[in-house]
Amino acid sequence: MQTFQFTRAKDIDDAVKTGAASPTAQQGAGVRYLAGGTTLIDLMKLHVETPGKVIDINRLPLDRVEETADGLKIGATVRNSDLANHPIVKREYAVLSQALLSGASAQLRNMATTAGNLLQRTRCVYFRDPSYPCNKREPGSGCPAIDGHNRTLAILGTSAHCIATNPSDMNVALAALEAVIHIQGPKGKRAIPIGDFHLLPGDTPHRETVLEPGDLITHVMLPKPSPGNRSIYLKLRDRQSYEFALASAAVIVTVDRGKISRARIAMGGIGTKPWRSSDAEAVLVGQTPTRESFVKAADMLLKGAKPQSENGFKVELARRCLVHALTLATQHA
Amino acid sequence: MENQSIEGAVSVRIRVNGKDMNLNVDPRTTLLDCLRESLQLTGTKKGCDHGQCGACTVHVNGRRVNSCLTFAASLDGDEITTIEGLGTPEQLHPMQAAFLECDGYQCGYCTSGQIMSAVALLKEPVGPSDADVKEMMSGNICRCGAYLNIIKAIQQVRQA
Question: CATH no. for residue B117?
Fold first, then answer.
């Protein structure tokens, strides 16, 4: 591992000020915030991340979950296991608890944080191996995944430059829950809806989020749960446990007098970012919760799907995943 | 490793198996390397070194973590427990005794990680079934395939 300077953030302002010295907050950042370390330290060992400075933010007072008038406030450094097992999350935001518990291992969930998971990097094997070119790691060097091993990679949101999947389960649930990311940066505070937080790769796959140098995620806000909703996270993968999704679905559905009155749908494992589809949601509203309407919604979500050489199976897998998730979420309604 | 002359060394105060220590660490030092190379606590094993196998599992403030993905420098004021702090040959921790009794290992390389994980699991919200235990132990790989007896050992302690 390349050496670096290690400091402990005294407070949020100190972290922001130190972070602002980095030329970028994206790939190639000279300064990185350290929370759980499960992505950062892994990638530093692989020489994918080579920050000259690491700021430890673990002691900042950002580790609380609080119920507010607007919803649920989740601190940046709340650990995945604590969030998943929080009584309010289990009761009111089941989809989030399920998504978190479906990810990684018990040890990693004890370490990984809310903000860290928002910034989790792709598992594309070419990104993780600096002996290969990768437009995300080294802009302009090429994408060997497009003609290479791409079985686990994306079918939605891809570009000619990058087809890497966003690997997070939590992000998929947060997308369906319409979470808002709160950031403190050198120019002050701002709030970004999760749908606008992650960027499509386009011709700049090294830019994954809207974060700028010095930006520190302080917390995530979840709006109050919509009354009478039922939510579920369904994850399909090669192994039953401790594996990334090939396709996953976060659905939040309200059925009122036999008709779907509200639906929120996001999918993981198939997109270059957490894939919310308001078009698929619109297909469902006003319909009776039947297999036929679920298939229509899934077809709408997957309309623009562009399979690669090895991942054509994901189109059908994702379709079945969403149909099954919607079936489970509505079967006792 | 704890040498004042290390460039960019970080001072860290930790408690390991009940013993307070003041260390000066290279910021790159993981908790795993610190335990094995500096403190000679070699019961904690290095498997993949990337958080994928669980061989390096220890407790930080009572919670199980992968010590290979933890910088020692980030643990100032924290309490660490390793397999050496769990029991002694004369007085085994009940989980250690159960692993022996149930033959919950073959080569033994993953065993300290398995046991540290299993001990932490006792205090976590885990359902009663074997399937629940399997799910919550999926972060500990055993290449010999001693899984059935590992589950048996854990369930024996949970049901005692």
Answer: 1.10.150.120
